[in-house]
Amino acid sequence: MVAFALVTGVASPVLASAALAAPGPARHLSTLVYAPPQVHGRAVYLWDATTGKELLDKQAGKRMPVASLTKMMTAYIVLREANLDDEVTIKREDVKYAEDNDGTTADLEPGDTLPVHELLYALLLPSGADAAHALARVYGPGVPGFVDKMNATARQLGLNDTLYVNADGLPTSHGDGYSTARDQARLAEIALRNPVFKKITSTSQHSTEDGRYDWYNTNHMLGLPGAIGVKTGSTNAAGFCLAFAADRGGHRLIGIILGENVANRRWDTAETLLDWASDR
Predict the structure, then answer these.
(1) Model pTM score
(2) Residue 58 is among the residues annotated as catalytic for this protein
(3) Which of 7, 91, 176, 181 has its CA 20 to 30 A from that of 154?
(4) What span, in angstroms and rounded, lies between the C-alpha atoms of 159 and 211?
(5) For 170-222, what is each residue's pLDDT tens digit?
């Protein structure tokens, strides 16, 4: 029973009452209460970005594909280089790219012109590969040039275990990009300093001003206290991934889950981790 409690962080009633009876065992109970919860996924990382303290590290330095978490870097670069009112015209190649590569889309229509701030919602809420391609094409200029900017920016930010091969995280015939849970948490923290990025990733649903498009966030964490995003992702190689964050008790908590086998389990794991960190 003691071994079980140490793993799960839950003490049995007998163990708890014994621990409360004397000062020595009480210290043991404290250890049990604050032990990290069991987590699923090939890599899991939880970080208190306010204090800089790492709270949980399960293979956080292991390089692996991160699927659509890639779009955090895409948004970061666009926010750095574009004006939010810039107009971008969607081309057939943007839509075809998403269709041909079985990517999630924002259902953008060729010929439509949207301002950058709307395309960022298309990128980050429904995780549109069509939006990613359009933004990369314009602000590379050209997708290869944009990918070069992504990798140069990763180096500038100290994300030394990160490599991008496209702006969306979809698998390619010449290999996938990669990152680590720790690098992705650092990137999320930096991106969330931008109030526009934070506002978008905290939004559950967004309609364009002209009513042409209506997008819903793929992130199921937004109903939790203090939740501020950040991004979901999945491919066969990457599994189910999640970047999540919440402001609680004056602390910004940021977590990453990579390589989860069960899609819905991401939400339970993230919620458990946030609650555990908040109660420490």
Answers:
(1) 0.88
(2) no
(3) 91
(4) 39
(5) 999 988 999 999 999 999 999 999 999 999 999 999 999 999 999 999 999 99
Identify the active-site residue in 30, 71, 91, 199: 71
Structure tokens at 243: 């970047």
**Residue 152 CA: distances (Å) to CA of 50, 112, 162, 186, 200:** 26, 31, 10, 16, 25
- CB contact at 8 A, 95 and 108: yes
Describe the strand order of the beta sheet including 227-235 as a list of residue ranges: 53-58, 43-48, 251-260, 239-248, 227-235
CA torsion angle for 124, 136, 179, 98 (degrees, to 10)?
70
Among the listed residues 30, 62, 91, 127, the single catalytic one is 127
CA separation for the pair 117, 208 (Å, rounded): 10
Task: Report the DSSP beta bridge partners of residue 43.
Answer: 258
30 is known as an active-site residue = no
Q: Where does the chain show beta strands of DSSP type E? A: 43-48, 53-58, 87-89, 113-115, 205-207, 214-216, 227-235, 239-248, 251-260
The reply to whether 207 belongs to the active site is no
The span from the CA of 277 to the CA of 34, in Å, is 9
H or E element that contains 152: helix 143-156
